[in-house]
């Protein structure tokens, strides 16, 4: 075996290990498969033949064949079909993998096979999977970046979505959530003319009241439309009891929350029996929420921000005031990515100074709780290690409700203006990680304090030295076109270190029209001139816009995220079209597009095409009498 191919084998071995996939090199420890390989010679002699790696995940047989050179990745015939003659099978990765997959399909009792042709190295490579059924029929699949999708955890979802082209149960649940949100939004409009900002307050208030069912302090059956003790008053009393039970303090904070929930008992239309419903709209909303939402939040442990999701849906259906207030709710896949980029530990303390519906804090709490089984550590995470500020009173109420429904974390939320806080005072909280999605497009030359980059600097000054700060902001914030923004960028580098910027999918905030990016900093450590910063183009993140569903996660998203994390944490090198490492200046545009240069060597086909294109152009010009363009002076 050539030295280069050994290096490819080692890289593939490490990639499999990272994906928690255990395959055998040069054979198999499964007797049936090993026996079949005894006659699997690629020369067709009936002698022994082994792929580089082989093994079983769930009920799938995985086969991997490697080549060191990308030029030896795949060979097709004139009909664009993968060649199966001996020289192609021997010399090309995909052809060899398909050969072994077909051989095992014919000589074992297994029904499902995925063969991988792999070529290149960690920096520049191709991984092509092919599905083969028990009859030897095969289906070519899209290339992947890693083996993540084929782990014990992901392979069945991959099979369902990519090979069978069916929806997974999780996708159906997401679709149901969107459908429920639309239905409830229409009911809130039709049965009470509720203002947009009050809709999520009614939802969150009812969810708090439902918690009292466990303590016999509330029942849905008690909502009978009595005008002496209205349904709204009964729900409000249950909310008050639950806030006491949740030990929300100080008292002034509890009063602020209760004042927001007054809309439930003070809105006459939702407290009177509706002729069509034959009950009060409040009882209808309560029954709906208990059946469709409460059980999800209560019994499904997930990073999903259900109330935030509902809020986002309300805003999208009604064109409400979210965007006019600069509020852009952060999608779940971004809040999870923040936790991974921060490499959260159970001992971290997380601060979100513009917390909205608490999406980042919910994701951080979920992430940290998963990393410890110690009940005392888990209690500390919920009680002491999640901090948030929110200026808008109704958003603050939703965030607090969200955290109560998730089992604490609410005692460290405050309704305050982040920019008016002394960052040194915030630093005393000892937070090690800052996460933020600040208000967008609110700053101007007349009010420079509201520039997103100013929020970023304020957060950096609020986190302890060597803490991590991660923000998602419009790409324009990283270019810094105005003098004020340039000055803030320069000041940030004097006191803090920029680790990298990740350009995101333009549809990340679908419907908002913002091109976002993620910037990662180390707080309190001045940026030294020779520091190499990572600039990554992650626009192709595996999420796509689908009609009537908005931004949807495809199965490829897991693979693409794993590749991003591998590059971010220096587990592998990447081509410059994905990641550029470079020193920076304050006046630079801190984006991949600013620093990108093409370092790819063209392959033979690309070179020949370029030469052919030039010769065609030259001939065309000569035929038009413009041969002077090519004369040597």
Helical percentage: 40-55%
Structural class: alpha/beta
List the total number of helices. Answer: 23
Total beta strand runs = 17
Summarize the main sheet.
9 strands, mixed
Strand content: 5-15%
Distance between the termini: 52 Å
Strand arrangement within the widest β-sheet reads 9-8-7-10-11-13-12-14-17
Per CATH, which architecture of the domain at 3-163? 3-Layer(aba) Sandwich
Residue-averaged pLDDT, rounded? 87
Radius of gyration: 29 Å
CATH class of the domain at 3-163: Alpha Beta
Task: Give short descriptive properties of this protein.
633 residues, alpha/beta, Trna Endonuclease, Chain: A, domain 1, six-stranded mixed sheet, 42% helix, 14% strand
Textual characterization of the structure:
The chain is of the alpha/beta class. Among the domains are: 3-163, Trna Endonuclease, Chain: A, domain 1, CATH 3.40.1350; 602-633. 42% of the residues lie in helices and 14% in strands. The strands form three sheets. A nine-stranded mixed sheet has the order 9-8-7-10-11-13-12-14-17, sandwiched between helices. Strand 8, helix 16 and strand 9 form a beta-alpha-beta unit. Helix 6 runs antiparallel to helix 11 (281-299), helix 7 (199-211) runs antiparallel to helix 12 (306-318) and helix 13 crosses helix 14. The longest helix has 22 residues, at 169-190. The chain is globular. Residues 317-326 have low confidence and may be disordered.
Layout of helices and strands:
Blueprint: H1 3-18, E1 24-25, H2 31-37, E2 53-57, E3 60-67, H3 86-91, H4 93-107, E4 112-120, E5 125-133, E6 138-140, H5 155-163, H6 169-190, H7 199-211, H8 231-245, H9 251-260, H10 262-266, H11 281-299, H12 306-318, H13 332-342, E7 350-352, H14 359-370, H15 375-384, E8 386-389, H16 393-405, E9 413-414, H17 423-427, E10 433-436, H18 452-460, E11 468-474, H19 475-479, H20 483-495, E12 497-504, E13 516-522, E14 533-538, E15 543-546, E16 550-553, H21 556-568, E17 579-582, H22 592-595, H23 604-623
Parallel strand pairs: 3-4, 7-8, 7-10, 8-9, 10-11, 12-14
Antiparallel strand pairs: 1-2, 2-3, 4-5, 5-6, 11-13, 12-13, 14-17, 15-16
Helix pairs in contact: 6-11, 6-12, 7-8, 7-11, 7-12, 7-16, 13-14, 18-20
